[in-house]
Design goal:
Blueprint: H1 3-30, E1 33-36, E2 46-50, E3 55-64, E4 71-74, E5 82-87, E6 91-93, E7 96-98, E8 109-114, H2 115-121, E9 123-125, E10 128-132, H3 151-156, H4 161-164
């Protein structure tokens, strides 16, 4: 197996893991039924459902392994409602190496961006469109206010706080 084959397998595993992580948070913490979108839907990965009022929310999940990655790449398609951007604290970009200790808690950062925000802040880099990594020093400070903003998804689905509270 070549280095590129191993890298592709690693990326696939981490991407699937990021999708399952988002799905688990929505279901476990907020009681939101979330399903995996068909692989033929190239611009979103998950669909969150509110069965009471028939609202659905399409979610694109993007994962970057290292905290110093440049950002998240996009295609021309934009059929999602929210981007959940996860930035890990693992891997290597450039000369920056991160040692992984499984005894320590993971330190991933999660940002929930509405589609309008992503579209407004995409930059062109050659043929690519890029949303900058919010953790980089030169990224706009407004990006940081979207960290762990899960309420954006629950509000979009019109879930009441009473519905989200755990029953005693």
């Amino acid at each position: 197996m070549t280095f590129m084959d191993k890298k592709k397998i690693d990326q696939t595993i981490r991407s699937e893991g990021a999708e399952n992580y988002v799905r688990a948070i929505l279901m476990m913490e907020f009681g939101v039924i979330t399903s995996v979108a068909s692989r033929s839907m190239p611009s979103y990965d998950l669909v969150a459902h509110n069965l009471t009022n028939n609202y659905n929310c399409r979610i694109s999940v993007k994962y970057r392994t290292a905290i110093n990655a440049d950002g998240f790449r996009f295609t021309e398609r934009n059929e999602y409602d929210f981007l959940v951007a996860i930035i890990g604290n693992r891997g290597k970009v450039g000369d920056h190496i991160i040692d992984v200790n499984p005894k320590e808690p993971h330190k991933s950062k999660v940002f929930i961006f509405p589609k309008y925000f992503v579209q407004k802040n995409l930059i062109r880099r050659g043929k690519e469109r890029l949303l900058k990594n919010p953790l980089l020093k030169h990224s706009p400070k407004k990006f940081r206010k979207y960290e762990n903003n899960w309420h954006r998804i629950t509000n979009f689905l019109r879930l009441s706080n009473k519905r989200l509270m755990r029953q005693q």
